[in-house]
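Lest this sound abstract, we think one record worth quoting, the chain in one-letter code, the fold tokenised, each line plainly labelled:

>
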Amino acid sequence: MLEVKAKRQFGAFTLDVAFDAAASGITALFGRSGSGKTLTINALAGLAQPAEGRIAVGGVVLFDSRRGINLPPEKRRLGYVFQDGRLFPHMNVRHNLVYGMKRQADANGIEFDHIVALLGLEAFLERRPRDLSGGEKQRVAIGRALLAAPRLLLMDEPLAALDAARKAEILPYIERLRDELGLPVVYVSHAMDEIVRLADTVVLMSDGRVIAVGSVESVMSRLDLRPMTGRYEAGAVLNTTVESHDENFGLTALAFAGGRLLVPHVEAPVGGRIRVRVRARDVSIALHPPKALSILNAFPGKIIEVGEDDGPQVDLLLDVGTPLWARITRRSYHELGLGVGKSVHALIKAVAIDRHSLGRVSGWRLRQDHGGGI
């Protein structure tokens, strides 16, 4: 297990966090800027010492204020990937990577050639950092951290400084290290698409505290967390399985607890598991089963919760076999006579499910024809 309990005053800001997570997969620290994510990851790394608390990874205690334990950063065996990579400019890629191995005596468990191949660095080994793109620099930084044979990899918003193209370039490599190495990762981000795609566990933070901990699906389905998860991009996350492909019309059918969701063609094997984010703003409501409609996806269900906002929009939490959000106008809400317990049909346009809505693919690569590799 990953055990984190840390409290410290930083000027007017109080960090007071406590959570446990499985020491496997990717645990994402998610929240708005200023929520305390980086302070938390620095406490893990030993770069910021809590006034009180306990931090342990896989049973190894890194910090315990009661027992007087506070391992220095170099003794914690944690890899750290920063936003800017922090490569040595006077070294080529090969020497930057080897530096990580030199700093860890038992690095023999991770092979240099394996990491180079895993991150696609073969063509860059003799280049200097100045000759690399932002995405390439981050791949080298990840490789250097891995070659130090860490027991846990820390990644502090590693894609925040990259444009959309470079971000799309590096995401598959992070998926590969998750799927092939089995190394636990603590991943800091405020980007919803990264969380949905990569995370196994979400630690939602706000104002220096942990608000919720759980699977991506459970945390994102809660209406009460909208102020922290982000209202515009908010929505439900569905666990689906590829059921079939319609080559004639370029569609893929994804089976989930609520039925069968049709989306633009996904290059993935039948039986493959895909996580799908359905944004609340992409879900419409009908009182009766739709007929002669261009929308391909309609799921019967009931309203189980209504948002309490007073604005022109209303968020509804539906039960369609699994939680699903819908965002409609307040006028529609009143004209349709909606409320908790009302039976409705949730309508989802197939084209609303784009490549940024898909995630958690283990062991194989995923692409969408209309959006490129993800």
Remarks:
- Residues 87 and 264 are 40 Å apart (CA to CA).
- DSSP finds nine helices and 24 strands in the chain.
- Residues 361-374 have pLDDT under 50 and may be disordered.
